[in-house]
Amino acid sequence: MIKKIQKYLLLNQPILWNIRIVPMAFVLIAMHLIFFGIGYISTNSQFQKSYYYGYSPANDLGLLYFVCILVGILLLIGWLVYYNRNNGFKTFYPRKTHQLYMEWLLILVITSGIAFLPFTLTQGYLTKWKSTASLAEVKSALDLLDMAKVLMPDENESYYNYKAEYNNPIPMPDGLALDPESLNLSLYQTQYSQKSGLEIKGYIGPSLLFYDYEYYDYYYSYEKQDSVSAAKIKKQELVKTWLKEERSDSIYSIIKGFEKLKRKHKLSSDLTPEKWFIRIYRPPFYPVTGDNYFIRYVNNEYEDYKTSITDDEPYSENSVQSTAPKVEHEYNINISYNYDYGYTDYTPRLPYNELRSGYVQILKCYEDNGDMEALSLICVCVALMASAFIFSFRATGGRSWLIALVSAGILIFIVILTGVGIRESIGYSNEEIVLMFMSAFWVMLFAALWVRIVVKVKGNEHKGKSPVYTNIFMWLLPCIVPLLFLIYACYLEYTKVKYAEIEIEGKDITCMFWANLVFTILAMWLISAIIRRWKSLPEE
User: Fold this and answer.
1) Which domain holds residue 468?
2) Bigger pLDDT: 431 or 520?
3) Residue 412 sits in the same domain as residue 520
4) 314: left (phi over 0), alpha (psi -120 to 50) or beta
């Protein structure tokens, strides 16, 4: 079928035939499907890490990115071998500007298809994570985990300490008589009077009711901290309200929900929901002591931890008690708890960190598009530069192209060396001036080359050495907008124009690169018209 299509294009659309657009389309579609599948299959979404902070697809796909880039380079070389077998520029130039422009656009399409292979690989990675849970399920699970954390006191007891400026002592219930001589009085608010002696007014020791959430969450960006913290505090206060009102079934429903998430992702622990509830449900004071700590992770890479509840155990709603287990009343009023702090061999483990970090990772795949946008911009820039290099090679020939490449390398070396010399002479505090100088040089060079080519075309002069600087001119075209933007950013930084609220942000850089794509596509029409006329100039 491909041969028949190519034969038809040879007779009717020679440009499409020569550029091998149809075979390359089939090859690129197949390669994108393959790399999408590789990204999907190779992604481990089993919630096996206790944190994903700073985690990106590159951590899982690092070697695959190298393979992807290598395959892209091989595809490009293979395509260029066939594409350069027939070059109409060697014997004639296109009759119309739009033919030349269309050829460049087709080159850009093919280079974009090759450059976006890493993007497709990453999409497979993100799709695998998204297939684990829907966005609604992720948000619901994170809400549940934020509430469950209140019920998991650990060795970092500071979050459960009484703070006089924020908390009130937990009042003593009516009818509860305590012997001061048998208590650790530092855990209670006391009052002494000559008439009644030492009187216990309330409990101020570590308690679930004094839980104070960590306000900064490293999983989220700085801009989201306020809204995220407000939502968590609201859920935290709801759990504390249920504890105060002794709504045992509501508290137990949180524990059951955690158990369901744990079983869903085949994580283990050595604590049943019933035992967990009994460990923490101690009204009215809900003390946090050495005997009801939890370890909030299970999968530890430094130790081989074996659990008494296996991953293979089937789970059903009926396998967990539907209502909160009853706790003996004497257990609730016996306030002489064990206050030997620290983990012991009997401290139970719960996969809280694994669950929360896993769901936050999924949430990032749904909502955090910064990495993908940056990757797409990199792919676009690579495709633009590759199309400029290929197009200039077709227009000027291999010998001129190589001479231009060496000349451009020498120019880059000279500009960098000059910039370093200027920096050393004026000091490190004026680095912006050096960057402005280096960027301005390339912009002025582009303008000078443009004027020189136009003068040659208008004057109908012979080509001379113009094929060399015509290559450099076309290579600079996709760089002009970023260079002008860099000059502007350096100017703002050097002059400190912050009183006018003019600052460069990430979204400004993103818009600049997309604007550069539009500018390059539009400018290439004019470049194609000039190159068409330049090609008709006599050699000598």
Assistant:
1) 397-540
2) 520
3) yes
4) beta
